[in-house]
Design a protein that fits this description.
The chain is an alpha/beta fold. It has helices spanning 18-21, 35-59, 74-85, 98-143, 155-166, 181-189, 202-207, 223-236, 252-258, 266-279, 281-291, and strands at residues 24-26, 64-66, 93-95, 148-151, 174-178, 193-196, 215-218, 241-246, 262-265, 297-303, 319-325, 328-331, 345-351. Helix content is 44%, strand content 17%. Helix 5 links the parallel strand 4 and strand 5 (174-178).
Length: 366
């Protein structure tokens, strides 16, 4: 029987007040104008329409009649323009000449409609924002298939995601799950869809469409949380590849029993790399280069080419480290590794190919 060893403070347990905010999906926001600037711009447009209307009435003031004193001055023009554009229409000042009535039909009426559109537009936009967001969310759910779910957007989660992005994984195929609204806002700013909530709850993982995911990365800060998330994720998705990280090596077997396909011990791995760098700084540099995808040397897994079938491991064009045959991982010097079979997969070291497009840059780690 295994006992989970706790270590440190869990990112999945922080912010108890954020649990009430949460368990919702946040899609990356589209780049829009700042609200204050947008409202100011619309008010200026409405003011321009009002001033233009006043100018039109003032230039043709002889064609208007005021029931109070028969004469239409500048203040009367401003008053008439205001009540006309707002569709109030008290009727104390009216156009009586043919030219004034024609101007009202051809100019004042279109300006009135434009004025109302400008003022009402902001309110309508606020009312329809929720509808548009619901429509985007439903479309996102319907189109999302074979995606990657990352539980925990801390240092480990960011580093794992950076490696996947370097291999060409689209940002639209990534869903971040984290209990912190601030973390999800950061993920949204970087172009990722986020789900706010505790990933140990199945309803939160279902909001991330985990049941349709192809691979799941569990990068929580506490090992007991990683176990619970792994159990829940495996129950919801039997076929997905689950990779989890733990701090203590003694908890790795429990993660595998919970359903993880691969378990990385972060503390032990970092310690071994430190020890190797002490013994041989050059060897430590090479190892660090291998685990950084997209620069220098890369460690990749690829299928055996037809031209390599039946040949020895040493006869391939790449530097083969291991051969994956079924569920067996054979070292390159294992006599059973050669000759190569068509169903084998090779773990090789290759020279990294720089991406054709711009480099992917993630935000600072937590």
């Amino acid at each position: 029987m295994f006992h989970v060893k706790l270590h440190g403070q869990d990112a999945m347990a922080r912010g108890a007040d954020e649990k009430l905010v949460s368990r919702r999906v946040k899609l990356p926001k589209r780049v829009v104008e700042k609200p204050l600037r947008q409202v100011t711009r619309r008010l200026l447009m409405a003011l321009f329409v009002l001033c233009l209307t006043v100018l039109i009435v003032w230039l043709d003031r002889e064609g208007y009649h005021d029931n109070a004193n028969e004469k239409v001055d500048f203040l009367d023009c401003v008053y008439y323009a205001t009540v006309t554009l707002s569709t109030t229409g008290y009727g104390d000042i009216v156009p009586y000449s043919d030219s004034a009535r024609l101007v009202n039909i051809l100019l004042i009426t279109p300006l009135r409609v434009l004025f109302l559109i400008i003022l009402v537009g902001t309110t309508l936009e606020v009312l329809t924002e929720r509808t548009r967001e619901e429509w985007r969310l439903n479309r996102w759910r319907n189109n999302l298939r074979e995606h990657t779910v990352v539980v925990g957007f801390g240092t480990k989660g960011r580093s794992a995601l950076q490696t996947l992005l370097a291999t060409g994984l689209p940002r639209e195929q990534v869903v971040i799950v984290d209990p912190s609204a601030k973390v999800i806002d950061t993920a949204n700013a970087e172009g990722f869809t986020g789900v706010i909530g505790d990933a140990t709850r199945s309803e939160v993982l279902l909001r991330a469409e985990l049941q349709k995911a192809r691979q799941i990365i569990i990068a929580t800060q506490r090992d007991d949380t990683a176990v619970l998330v792994t159990l829940t994720a495996r129950q919801l998705n039997r076929g997905a590849k689950i990779v989890a990280a733990v701090r203590e090596e003694e908890n790795a077997p429990l993660l595998k029993q919970s359903g993880a396909d691969a378990v990385i011990t972060s503390a032990s791995a970092a310690g071994r790399l430190l020890g190797l760098s002490v013994l041989s700084p050059s060897a430590g540099t090479v190892m660090e280069d291998l685990i950084q995808q997209g620069s220098g040397l890369d460690l990749i897994e690829r299928p055996v080419n037809k031209s390599e079938v039946g040949r020895s491991v040493r006869d391939t064009g790449d530097l083969v480290v291991s051969v994956l045959r079924g569920h067996r991982l054979l070292p390159y010097d294992d006599p059973h590794a050669s000759p190569l079979q068509l169903t084998d997969r090779l773990i090789t070291i290759v020279r990294a190919v720089p991406p054709a497009g711009p480099q992917v840059t993630l935000g600072p780690a937590e």
